[in-house]
Amino acid sequence: MTITEFLQTAVPFLEGIPPELTVILAKKIVQESFKKGQTVIFAGTSVEGLHIVAQGKVSVMIRPGKGKPFEEVAALGPGEVFGETSIVEFKMAGAQIKCSEDETVVFIIPQNAFREILDQNPDFKERTLKLIENRQSQRHGGEKRPDALAHEEEEKKA
User: Fold this and answer.
1) 3-class secondary structure, 126
2) What pLDDT score was predicted for residue 76?
3) Are 101 and 54 in contact (CB under 8 A)?
4) Residue 141 lies in a domain
5) DSSP class of residue 13?
6) pLDDT digits (tens, 9 = 90+) for 88-120
7) How far is Cα 153 from Cα 127, in angstroms, rounded to an integer?
8) Do β-strands 96-99 and 71-76 pair in parallel, antiparallel, or remain unpaired?
9) Taking a C-beta distance cutoff of 8 angstroms, is the pair 57, 77 a contact?
């Protein structure tokens, strides 16, 4: 399976993106391989792009409080994405992503290419914002964060 075919058939997050844009994204992808225990993204660092698990698994780890150890809050496998929140909200990584299986392969769509797709496709941008909201809600015990509530208020005004 080519990278383009993988993006079009195995990544639900990218559904609805025109095929010609998927081809462009596939050409810009950087592929990285990781071993079990390696850190893919360190919490508090900048995120280089949208990460897509192509093979293997990663663990999403957050620190519940200062001085406390990281805890796994999610496990992501092939076709699942991470890093979108940091790109969209212009923030540093809020979670640490660790490889949980040997021979894990991650595709990285550079930030600028991901932002272009968001700007060109309003439906995709809305789906991205909903994914971010859902993940943040899960991370905060189902309570909506103030910035998510502000986003809802803006939508009501529009």
Assistant:
1) helix
2) 96
3) no
4) no
5) G
6) 888 999 899 999 999 999 999 999 999 998 998
7) 17
8) unpaired
9) yes
The pLDDT of 63-81, averaged and rounded, is 91
- Locate 79 and state its tokens: 């076709």
Q: Residue 37 maps to which CATH number?
A: 2.60.120.10
If we measure between CA atoms, which residue out of 153, 124, 148, 121 comes closest to residue 137? 148
Domain holding 48, by residue range, is 3-128
55: amino acid identity, one letter:
Q
Largest CA distance in the chain: 48
Does residue 37 sit within a domain?
A: yes
Q: How many domains does the chain have?
A: 1
**Are the C-beta atoms of 42 and 93 separated by less than 8 Å?**
yes
Give yes or no for a contact between 108 and 53, defined as CB atoms under 8 angstroms apart.
no
